[in-house]
Amino acid sequence: MRNKAVVLGANYYVGLSIIRCLGREGVHVVAVDYSEESRYGAKSKYLSEKHLAPHYKENPEGLLNFLIDFSKKQDKKPVLYPGADPYVEFIDKYFDELKEHYLFPMDRKGFWTEVMDKYRMSLLCHKHGVKVPETINSKEENLIERVRDEIKYPCIIKPMDSASFVKAYRRKVFIINSEEELIDKVNMIHKDGHGITIQRIIPGPEENCYCYDAYLNQDSKVTHYTSAYKIRQWPNNFGASTYAKQSWIPELHDICKPFLEAIGFKGFAEIELKRDVNTGVIYLIEVNVRTINFNEMLYKSGLNFPYIAYLEMTDKLPEPKSVEYETGYVFHYMYEDLFAIRGYLKSGQMSLGKIIKDNTFKKVHSTWSWEDPGPGLYFVGTIASKVFRRVLGKE
């Protein structure tokens, strides 16, 4: 009997991808969610078991007790996977209790949260000689003067906790064009209780936004890796990938491998970077510590990161592997990509000809799969239902 895998969050395509990556390898996969609403990942044929549990924010101790009780009923410790950042924060908060009952690669309480925190990450980068955009904590003295002298306008306001920020404002960043706008937004966000930083905007097109995806073993050594770049994202310029292409960019390996190993990271990580179009310098933007949105593209490219973690936790790590060539695969999240395309055309950042040309790549879809159609059909149904209710004025 193999260890079960427990995925927190099947209501988004990241959780769905984890389910598929493990289920294809014959792993007994369990989905845990707080609601049946939009739970399209639970429609996958690769899911063996599903449960509803208390909400991670509304009743975190209830969720903790549910997970502990579930683990106690198993013959072997399950392997635990967070499907979104709030679940990462939940695991970090109850790290010791969960570590006693579940398997997951990280072995340091609070480290995931530290790496996710934009300002604390910038301090780690400075310590290890990795370039980051000029960043100022919004609580520092002489903020307005420092932004005017060191960062200049336009600049961006970035959250320390992305999940709560996005939930509050429905955006990942605020673009700031003047001192008056900065004062207004900082005061508003401080009043709402969110931690933020002010950061310089790195100039350059979307294709200058890179991703380095890697797995580090229990000795904090990179064993599996590749890279990619964004073609389109939503919201435009400061969002998540809606169309991204796997591509080998050697410079990223030279920057990211030493950094991840130096900070003692374990498990899967993705580093987002951007190349300054004027200077050619590559800056680290942020680090994702859980499975990312184009995981299905990484799987198609030959790196099944969820299963790599599963094997290391339950048996032994597979042989090291890197994809240091271009596979031709692109990730496509059609739903949000429609909004992205509209935005690029409206702003003049992209031409229709470029968008059509880019459409010729080999696509790996976020949700749709001919071998596992249930989630895609369910997702389309939920979108159609929302549109129908909006037309009728019920939403």
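Above is the first protein from milestone M3; the second protein from the same milestone is given next.
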Amino acid sequence: MTAKPKAAMASLVRPMIEPHCGDLDVTWFTSTEEAMEVAPHAEIGWFDMYDKDKMAAIISAATNLKWLNSIYAGVEHFPLEQLKSQGTILTNGAGLNSAPIAEFAIMLMLSAAKRSDVIFDNQRQHNWLETAPGTVEIDGSKALIIGYGGIGQQIAKKLSGFDVDVTAVRRTATGDSHVIGLDDWRDRLGEFDWVFVSAPATRDTRHMFGADEFAAMKSSAWLVNVARGSLVDQEALVKALNDKAIGGAALDVADPEPLPADHPLWDAPNCLISMHLSGVAQTRMFQRAAARFVENLKRYRGGEEMIAVADFDRGY
């Protein structure tokens, strides 16, 4: 009798996954120690953890992995070279949280437009404002979305309800007049009132937004970053905010995270920081992730193309 493939997964997903794992020998770990113990023997692994260093160490020990699943869309903290050399298939969480993250991006834009931060600060101080601190109107404004994957497309969909004129940036232009390529967006930065960043974190995208890009933006434009903090040169951003070179920045992400308490970005003018909460401001992430895993397990068994397979060379 052929031995069942060994799998290792967190007990958190057990109720949603176990009914579909009859032909697997699964260890449902409850601690990092248990995960580390079983990792070297697993053919299939799902080792997601909040502590990225521990997670990377456990995955590094999983030298027999044929398939690694993750709920994370960004995989820059994974030992990608090792996984590639092992021939491991890595399926990530791309698209799982696109809608709630896009909702968060729109919230940040609206907060910037109407300055809800100032309004609620005054509420806490029991001050009744006579004039609105934010008077920017969304209707008819122009937005650039850099990174037109699942999140970027959801942002565009939601912006359409506000009658915002959207231009999106992809690796290659599609022929659609509203979609441009990577070589075109910098020359057009001055056209937009809102610049959304939703691109993956790779070697190529690190500090893609710096002093030159801020100088090219409208002085009233806002940067909204729901991607990764590494895509923005924070020193250049702080200077742009202090110099009022741009209207402001609404940031769900920073570099590093958590942002140190004494970092100047906290107190930079017209800067809203939401502590990378967009990906956890949802209620059905694990249900979506479990459903995708079950579908991918079916495809893995059948040798079929799997959903959301990461590209090791691109890094996402």
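Note on the second protein: The first helix runs from residue 14 to 17.
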